[in-house]
Fold this sequence. Notes:
CATH class of the largest domain: Alpha Beta
Number of helices: 6
Order of helices and strands: EEHHHHEHHEE
Helix content: 25-40%
Number of strands: 5
Strand order of the largest sheet: 1-2-3
Structural class: alpha+beta
Shape: elongated
CATH architecture of the largest domain: 2-Layer Sandwich
Distance between the termini: 51 Å
Oligomer: single chain
Radius of gyration: 27 Å
Strand content: 5-15%
Number of domains: 3
Amino acid sequence: MTSARCSGDRLPFFTSPDGGEFVVPMSLVGSLSFPFYLNAMRRQDLADDPRFRTPQLRRVHLAELHAIVQTWINTFEDMASLDAQLDEAKIATGQLRDVREFAASEWATAWGLTREVSDRAGGSITIPGTAVHFSAHDGRLRRRCGRCRGSTTPSCSRNSATRGADRGAGPGRGVVDAGPGRPCGGSE
C-alpha cells in the first residue's frame, strides 16, 4: 500500500494477508485510537518511539507507522486470523468491495438490493431493487406498469380510450398494457 493512500488523518487502508483491501475505521494518529493498534500488535514499545510519541509526530511519520502496521498484518496467514486478533483488541475492519462484488454479496442478496428482470430478448439484466425496507415488508417487489410509474394514485384504471395500443405504443415497444377493459391495479 502506498503512503499516498494513508496521508493525513484519513481512514487507513491496508492489504489483507489474502491480498484483498480492507479499511480500519480508526485513526492511526489519534491519542485515543493509537493504543488500540499497539495492543493488537502487542507493540507497546512503539508508544516510546520518538516518531510516534504525539499525534502530531504520528501524522508526520504516518507512512512509516502505516508500514509497521502493514508489516505486522503480513505475518498473518489469512484475514480470518487477523480479524480475530483485531477483534480481540476492539478494532473493527471493513472489506472493500467494488460494485459488482457488493451487489453479489450475501448481505446485498438478503436485502434485495438488486433484482433480475427480463431484457425482453430471452435474457435478463440486474437492476437496483427497492432502496427502502419497512419492518412489515415481505421482501417481494411489485412490478408496476409503465403508466403507474411515478403516479400518485394508488391504482391505474385503464379503459379502451387510454390503452397503450391506442396511444401508438404496443407490443414490441416496451409498453405494458393491461388489455381491453381490465384495470391495471398498479401491477403487471
